[in-house]
Design goal:
The chain is an all-beta fold and 112 residues long. The chain has no helices and 11 strands. Strands 2, 4, 5, 6, 9, 10 and 11 form a 7-stranded mixed β-sheet that branches. The protein has a 4-stranded antiparallel β-sheet with strand order 1-3-8-7, with no helix packed on it.
Length: 112
């Protein structure tokens, strides 16, 4: 069975950077239209970056200019580069695709 696996989370001080990755665990499987979601502590999961059907990458206003979403050529791994992190960015980050559903999430903690 193919699963999406997020990695790259951790503890970082405000102003720092992290790069998250989301990889399909099964060999030979790719996907399109990846989405990244953020679930702050005690709050609902909300999208932060997503790819439209036109190929355009959309960003939530709270992360625009700080986060960058990308994908490898094989469409096996999606990345979320996070710069100038803020304490409000703390929470669990998930990737999602229609092909494979949700990953298990990776924890990001930004200290002030």
């Amino acid at each position: 069975q193919v699963q999406l696996v997020e990695s790259g989370g951790g503890l970082v001080q405000a102003g720092g950077s992290l790069t998250l990755s989301c990889t399909a665990s099964g060999s030979g499987f790719g996907y399109n239209l990846p989405h990244w979601y953020h679930r702050p502590p005690g709050e609902q999961r909300e999208w932060v970056a997503k790819m439209s059907t036109s190929g355009e990458i959309l960003y939530h206003a709270s992360v625009k200019g700080r986060f960058t979403m990308s994908m490898d050529n094989a469409k096996v791994t999606t990345y979320l580069q996070m710069n100038r992190l803020e304490p409000e960015d703390t929470g669990v980050y998930y990737c999602y695709t229609a092909s494979f559903g949700w990953g298990q999430g990776t924890q990001v903690t930004v200290s002030s």
